[in-house]
């Protein structure tokens, strides 16, 4: 079996830099991380200097994701040897127990961290993740709410809570979480678009109008967000078709929908160019837009 | 085929399996299609993988259903069912979202099926198909008798799925969500379909 460096013709420095990129941008491409990281550790450990410790951590977590307990265990051993009393390493040991579904043991470990250091957010979040893995959604939601009362600026936690509420069909509370995220991240088009989707799902004229506005906002922030474009089209179409709106509102929304249609058509025409295999999806969109226009007029 | 029987083709099964495998940490869903005319029995000949995030939110689901509807009328297929694999592998019961979409499909197809993928049975060497099927009976969705579910050439189907994984072709699968992230990707999966049809042995004719 050939090595990564042979297969892709990369140097160990490039492999190390790739790992850093994935770490910094929080990618969860675990199989790749394991492939690259394992080779780096086995063949080039001496060259990595102090970087090796953070690489062990990164590779260990990726290994857990891929059920590579052998690799996770050896990374953990190296880290334990180097940092014998570290809470950070203890948390990694806890994650390994979680991966083995030994949730009680994992919780004991996290509790011991919290006894030592009650402000350790990582341990608290792992305990909430365990609740989620066990399917205990209401408890996870309750714990996460308590956590956020203390750590109100934790974006990751707000987003996790919005996901939990969406799964429980509690759209009003999901919207609240997304509002928090939009306030602190006004340039993030994904939060705008997710908020719009939640509002659309809640339904009713007022929510549809809000949805349309936030789909439009998401597009302003990123004009290539297809979900926002389709969302704008669909919400404007529904508003225009509603018997409860004034003639002016109807006219405005017909205009928004028409604009969205032209943008969608353009995007698909560009996408379809030269690629024989996606002609089918392109055709489906074209026909869909045509048929929806007929029902609207 | 007899009344109430459901046949699941290799192509449909393989793509569902690949879809669930591609997103092991999320719930995934999709639509089951048939190219056979409506009758007492249901032949699931293909499937369209839909989402791997926010399954219960309306806009993208509505969009996907509409687009698949259009594509079906272009290709003489019908939507005959819905499948879902839950993120939490220990719980393969239908969620409210699954029931809602299945209900909508039932409005157009009176022997529609709801298929839940049982994550706990998805491991190499498992001898039992990891699926649980429901049908509409007495105004609710009830478990379907296992003996009415046909998976012809089961051994061959398993082998084909394994081959797709070992050749790396499982990465070819595109669901509707991925298509929206990059619209040059084909959610009708023409390329993958061709690869799977190649693997289905010629001796079987139509599967």
Automatic annotation (TrEMBL), chain A:
One of its GO terms (cellular component) is EMC complex. It holds the Pfam family TPR_EMC2. Its main location: endoplasmic reticulum. It is a peripheral membrane protein. Keywords: Endoplasmic reticulum, Membrane, Repeat, TPR repeat. TPR repeats lie at residues 155-188. Residues 90-199 form the EMC2 TPR-like domain. Gene3D superfamilies: Tetratricopeptide repeat domain (1.25.40.10). The keyword Ribonucleoprotein does not apply. It is found in: Endoplasmic reticulum membrane. Belongs to the EMC2 family. Part of the endoplasmic reticulum membrane protein complex (EMC) that enables the energy-independent insertion into endoplasmic reticulum membranes of newly synthesized membrane proteins. Component of the ER membrane protein complex (EMC). This is ER membrane protein complex subunit 2. It comes from Onychostoma macrolepis.
Automatic annotation (TrEMBL), chain B:
Residues 6-140 form the MPN domain. Gene3D superfamilies: Cytidine Deaminase, domain 2 (3.40.140.10). PROSITE patterns: MPN. One of its GO terms (cellular component) is EMC complex. It comes from the Eukaryota. Component of the ER membrane protein complex (EMC). EMC8 and EMC9 are mutually exclusive subunits of the EMC complex. Belongs to the EMC8/EMC9 family. This is ER membrane protein complex subunit 9. It comes from Cyprinus carpio carpio.
């Amino acid at each position: 079996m050939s090595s990564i460096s042979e297969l892709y013709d990369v140097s160990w420095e490039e492999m190390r830099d790739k790992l850093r990129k994935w770490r910094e941008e929080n990618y969860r491409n675990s199989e790749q991380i394991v492939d690259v990281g394992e080779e780096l550790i086995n063949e080039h450990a001496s060259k990595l200097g102090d970087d090796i410790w953070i690489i062990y951590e990164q590779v260990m977590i990726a290994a857990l994701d891929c059920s590579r307990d052998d690799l996770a265990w050896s990374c953990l051993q190296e880290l334990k040897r180097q940092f014998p009393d570290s809470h950070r390493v203890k948390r990694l040991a806890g994650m390994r127990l979680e991966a083995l579904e030994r949730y009680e043991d994992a919780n004991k470990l996290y509790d011991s961290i919290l006894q030592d250091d009650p402000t350790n957010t990582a341990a608290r979040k792992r305990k909430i993740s365990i609740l989620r893995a066990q399917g205990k959604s209401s408890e996870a939601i309750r714990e996460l709410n308590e956590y956020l009362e203390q750590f109100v600026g934790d974006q990751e936690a707000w987003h996790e809570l919005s996901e939990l509420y969406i799964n429980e069909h509690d759209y009003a509370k999901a919207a609240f979480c997304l509002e928090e995220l939009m306030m602190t991240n006004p340039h993030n088009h994904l939060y705008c678009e997710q908020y719009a989707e939640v509002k659309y799902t809640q339904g009713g004229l007022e929510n549809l109008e809000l949805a349309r506005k936030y789909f439009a906002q998401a597009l302003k922030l990123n004009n290539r967000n297809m979900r926002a474009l389709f969302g704008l089209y669909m919400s404007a179409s529904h508003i225009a078709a509603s018997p409860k709106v004034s003639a002016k509102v109807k006219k405005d929304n017909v205009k928004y929908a028409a604009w969205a249609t032209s943008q969608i058509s353009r995007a698909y025409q560009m996408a379809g160019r030269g690629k024989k295999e996606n002609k089918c999806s392109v055709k489906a969109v074209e026909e869909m837009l045509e048929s929806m226009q007929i029902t609207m007029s | 085929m007899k009344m109430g029987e459901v046949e699941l083709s290799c192509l449909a099964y393989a793509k569902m399996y690949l879809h669930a495998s591609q997103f092991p940490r999320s719930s995934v869903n999709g639509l089951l299609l048939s190219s056979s005319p409506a009758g007492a029995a249901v032949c699931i000949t293909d499937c369209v993988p839909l989402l791997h995030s926010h399954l219960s939110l309306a806009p993208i689901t509505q969009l996907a259903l509409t687009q698949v509807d259009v594509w079906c009328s272009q290709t003489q297929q019908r939507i005959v069912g819905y499948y879902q694999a839950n993120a939490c592998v220990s719980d393969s019961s239908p969620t409210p979202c699954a029931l809602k979409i299945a209900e909508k499909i039932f409005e157009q197809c009176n022997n529609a099926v709801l298929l839940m993928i049982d994550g706990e049975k998805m491991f190499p060497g498992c001898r039992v198909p990891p699926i649980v099927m429901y049908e509409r009976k007495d105004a609710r969705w009830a478990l379907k008798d296992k003996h009415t579910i046909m998976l012809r050439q089961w051994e061959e189907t398993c082998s084909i799925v394994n081959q797709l994984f070992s050749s790396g072709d499982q990465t070819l699968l595109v669901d509707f969500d991925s298509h929206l992230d990059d619209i040059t990707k084909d959610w009708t999966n023409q390329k993958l379909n061709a690869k799977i049809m190649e693997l289905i042995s010629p001796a079987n004719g139509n599967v």
